[in-house]
Each structure stands twice: as C-alpha cells, then as structure tokens.
Amino acid sequence: MTEKHRNVPQGINYELQYTEKIMPMLVFNGYYHHFNGSRDTIEGQVYYWRCVKRAELGVDKCSGTASVKENPDKQWQAYAGRTQHNHEPNAIQASIRTFQHELRSEALNGAKATREVVKESVEKMPEYAKALVDPSPASKIVRKVRRKRKLETNIPLSEPKTLHEIQINDDMKYFKDKLIVYYNDFTGDDEYVVIMSSEKLLDNLAKFSHWGCDATFSIAPLLFRQLWIIYVKINHSYCPVVFCLMTTKSEKSYNMILSQLTLLRPQLKPTYVALDFEKAEHNAFKNAFPECSLNGCFFHLQNAVFSHISELGFKRLYNADSDFRFQCQMLPAISALPPERTCSAICDLREYYEHSKFSTELSKLMDYFESRYVGRITGVNVTATGTTIRITGVDVTAEGTKIRRKAPLFEKDIWNINAMILSEQPKTSNSIESFNKQLAKCIGHSHPSIYRLIPEIGAEILWAESKIGAYLAGGKFPRRNGRYVEVQKRLRNAVIRNTEVKSNNISFLKAIAMNLGRVDHRRSDPNSPEIQCMTKLNVVRRVLKLDMLDDDFLHQICIKHGYNQEKRAYEASFKYFSSTEAKPSRTWCVFGDGNCILRSVAVAVSGDEENHLAVRRDVGNYIIKHREKCNRARCWCRTYNIPNDLLLESAQNCGDRDRWGSTLHLIAASKLYKIVILTYSQLESGLPSWTVHNPSMQTGTAPSMEQELVYPSVAFQIEANHCDVVLDVEPPL
C-alpha cells in the first residue's frame, strides 16, 4: 500500500473497508467506491473516489464519484460527486462485502480459532444475507480464512504490533494434545512473561538438582527481549526443560518465573546452577533458592573479557598480534587458580602488565576485570614490617599486610573453576550454546512471530522429553568432543603439577593460558592444517588469487601434521578467508527469507540488512537504465547476451520480497556500488564453486581469475537457508 492509501482517514458518515490486496474501499450511501487519488486544495486535503462498477464493460458502466474532506467542524465527511450512480445500492451485496471485510481483518490480525472467526462473522450478518453464506468446515469461506492465516503451510499469524495485541488462546497453549504454556501474564508495566514446559519436564526439573540457564536473543519475537531457557544437567550435557519469553531482563521478571515454577512444583530444590554473568539473574536465584550454589560459565567469562576488548577498540590488535592475545588470555586464566591465590595473582599480573609493551591497553583491561570480578583496592592496612612490595602503585610490606577491596559485582566463588577442573567437570556449558544454535537453525530466521515460535518450542519440548526418558531408561548418551576432553585433561594436569611444584602466579597463569586457546586456536590461525586443507590463498602485490588445493599439496600437508587423507575438507572455505596480508575483519550471518542475497548486499554496502528495500530498488533501476549496455557488453554475462524481457523481469523481481536474488542482480550490484563480490556454493559433486563479480572485469570462476584489490571486497556463502557475509577483505599495504 502506498503512503497516500495509508493516510485515508475515518469519517462520520462513511465506512472504510479493505480489499484482499489491502486497498481501501469507501462505503457511502450504500455504494462502494475505489480510491482514485488525493489532492491538496484551498479547503485542505481531498480524497477522490469512484464507483467500483466503473471498471465494468458495456452500458452498465457506472461513473458515480464521491469525495472525502473536512467539514467546517474539522471532521472528515464524504460528499457525493457531480456524477450520480446509474444503479441502486444492493443491500445484500453490501452485507456480503462487509462480512468478507470483517472476516479478512480477523483472519489477518486475530488469534481465534478458524471456526470461531467464521461463526462470529456470520452472526453479525442480516437474516436475508445469511442464506448466501455457507459456514460449513469444507466451505470456500473457511478455506479462505485458513489460507489467509496460512495454517495449512504451518506459517503463523501476523506479528502483533504491541504487547496488548498478543492473544494466546487455549488452542495455542496445547501442542499435540499436551499443555505447553503454563503461564502467560502481562502486568502492564512492559513486563510480559510466557512460561512453556510440560508435566514430564517439570517433574524432571524437580528430580535433577544440577541446572543451567542461558538466554538467546536472535529467535525472540520482536516485542520480547529474550528467550530464557532453564536446563537440567544430564551426564556431561544439558537438556532444556523450561522456555520463558521475557520482555525485560529485570530481576522482577526472573523472580516472577521462579515463583511460578515453585508454585507448579513446590519440591524444586536445585543445589547447583550454571548461569551467565547477569546480576539480576543471580539475585533472583538467591531469593528463590538461598542454599543453591551459583556458578558462572567459563565460556561467558571469556566472552565478557573479549567483548570488553572490542569495546576498548583493541579487537584488531587482538586478532593480529599473538603476544597481545596470549597476555589477554592470562586474565581469564585466573579463574583456574585456587581461590585463595586470586587476589595475589591479580596483583602480580598487574605488575607483569606494567612491564609489557602493551601496558596501556592491558591496564585498561585489568581495571575492568578487577572491578567486576575481584574488587578494586580501597586501602591497605600494614601491621608489621618486612620486605617491601608494590601493589597497584602503593608500596607496602609483605608481612602483616591486609588489602581492603570493594565488593565485586560477582564474587570469586561464582567464577572460579579450580574445583571443577580437579573433579573433571565441564567448565563450560557448550551443549547449551549448541542447543541455542540448533534451535535458531530449525526456525530458519531471526525474530519469528510468537505464534510461530510457540509450536516450534512445543516440538523441542517433545524432543527433550524423549531425550531425558532415554537417559533414565539406560540408553546411550553422546560422548564428549575429543578436543574438549583433551583440553580438560591438560588443564587438570597443569593445575595439579603447578600446585605441586609451587609455581609462582605468573608461571601458573601462563601454563593455564596456553591451554585456553587450544580449542579455537586452529579456527583462527591461518597456518592451521585444517584451514590449509580448505583453501590456499596467495597474495602477490595487490593481486588476490584463490586456488583449490591439488592432491600432492594436500597429501604433503596431511603427512606433515599427521592427518588422515580419507576426507576432503572443503566446507565453509570462505569463512577462513584470511592470511597475514588479506583477511576479513568481521563476518555477518543473514538468515534467508526469500531475498537473503540482496539483504547480504545491503550489509556489504551499508552495514545494515534492513536497508535491503533501498538496495533492491536501486539495483532494479540500475538494470533497467543500463539494459542496452548489458546487451552489447560481454562483461555483464559470461557467455551470452541477455534478452530485454529477461532484463525487465529481473529488474521487477528485484523488488519482490519473495524472490531470490539472481546472478544478474549481483553483477548489477557490483557495478553500481563498486564492490568485488565473491560467491561460494557447494556443487552436487561435493566440490566448492567460487564465482567473482568485479565492477571492471568480466564475471567468471574465481580460481581462474586474478582480482585486483582496488575495490572493497565482500564474500557470500550461499546455503539453503542463510548467507554468511565476510566483510572488509583488506588489500596488502
């Protein structure tokens, strides 16, 4: 609908209805009129209308008109036009049109059952018109409502615009005859909470004493802040049991959820809960379960440190310099030390940072960690004399020294993992993060409608029931990843051995930091054999060349690093598009919605996928404007000229939200925005296919072409349901 259609106001002597294409219709004096434009006049804005029978052929064509404008009382009023209608108003037809309008509105915006929608609409009709309507389940009207609501294709109702519009009726609270929505409350203070689980899962929540909690944001509906999930620990993994939609991350919302769970299962008594580092969440658990032990996930501790590195503007330095990266990893390594050595380790590490060449950067990072997890020093009490030491710039004596610290945001008992390492318990909740990613992949796109998310969670609830049931029945459980088991053993050995030999704090931290990066080291190191076996990247001067590995080179790499050459690792090649001379500074995942290629282009040219509407318009106009040049120049297409009708169709499809971006759209975007676009997809043979689009070159297959990096470059990996965008491929200096 255009802007002028949206602005048509409601009035005192007429009614506005809408067609199936959501175009306005004026109902005035029993006649129906189509919108015919608007104009600014001396009297103000005037909207013009003409009879719906004007489009009919033959002598019955009606020329009746009407207009809508403000009367002297500043109220919108309809007036008959100069040309009168040549027919009488049809009351029965008007009733049917009104019935169709109300049915359509309720189908698009309501949340009632289909039969209830049809029944209520029929009851409002006059008796003389009801005979023309068939409300049976197999009627065309019922099928039309279902088609409008897209229930037959499992596509949800329209997204509510406000929290007051959310309607979770009794039908939605059940999934396959099982109650899944146990609590649905809106307090009116922007505190909306929806709790979803099942009777079996709530029973299991009471049986298991080790819990885990985490939130995911990408799959929460737009009106909600997060989807908060409570897990129970099974063996070394976690299984979801309670799903909570929350509009805020306030302590009040967390208290509301835990109190409702306590009402549903009074026997709840967790002894251990793994949490994110969120104070409101911690306070809520302390209020609900005072005797429960709270532990922060080490994965989130590392993420918090790395996020602050990015906030300080040191991300590029962290990625480029291995020494700086290693010294940063010594900071979260403090969590592996015995708790009684935490404060002394902080003091020693700060002194170690002061002598580093990155002292300025590391001191800022240390200030953040110390104030948040240890507590800043507020004073020093000296009661005896002895050897002088230096603590955060203050010279005090070692004997009889007591350092006063401000209470940290999170006590060391929460984030210290020394006991977990020694008992060989998982220090992270990787299975929780894995489930969040799997759930997002199943849904297929970010921020789905709440009416679609609830059935998806219902399916996950059934899956969780079967998983816990199989475990309790003695079934096999997935083994831990070998890499994590190896790192766990190395960490345990490092802690035990450094404790036995009484290593100083700095040596202890270095030993731990060497193992913290072992899990993700190969993924970030361009010289890793895993990455070498995917794509070989040669940079010569200002030329970027992509070559697929030959068998001899692959064989040499595998022999050198002890790899088995049975499988060819080509997957996700462009994600490791990095070297010391040319590498992406960041990646962006765009979930598919029918036009993710053009949304990826929007990310590349503007940094925001929401700008894809303007990108589609500009690309379509560019194709039409240069269609003659496209037919003459071979650079627009590799082997053939493009007919005019195909050009116009591609330009039109560019503005269609339900069409995928084509190769022609990428060629036009490359030339329009002056960017190099590399696309990657998997062929049926299993080999990867690279294609390059350059503003000044012919489009062709990437391995056979050399790219002059005179333009900004981006890379897309095209899959069935999303695009991964690699941004800012930097040319060598």
Automatic annotation (TrEMBL):
GO molecular-function terms, A-Z: zinc ion binding
Domain named FLYWCH-type: residues: 20-87
One Pfam family here: MULE
Domain OTU stretches: 592-718
Keywords assigned by UniProt, alphabetized: Metal-binding, Zinc, Zinc-finger
Matches recorded under InterPro entries: MULE_transposase_dom, OTU_dom, Papain-like_cys_pep_sf, Znf_FLYWCH
Keyword Protease attached: no
UniProt-recorded name of the protein: MULE transposase domain-containing protein
MULE transposase domain ranges (all copies): 212-302
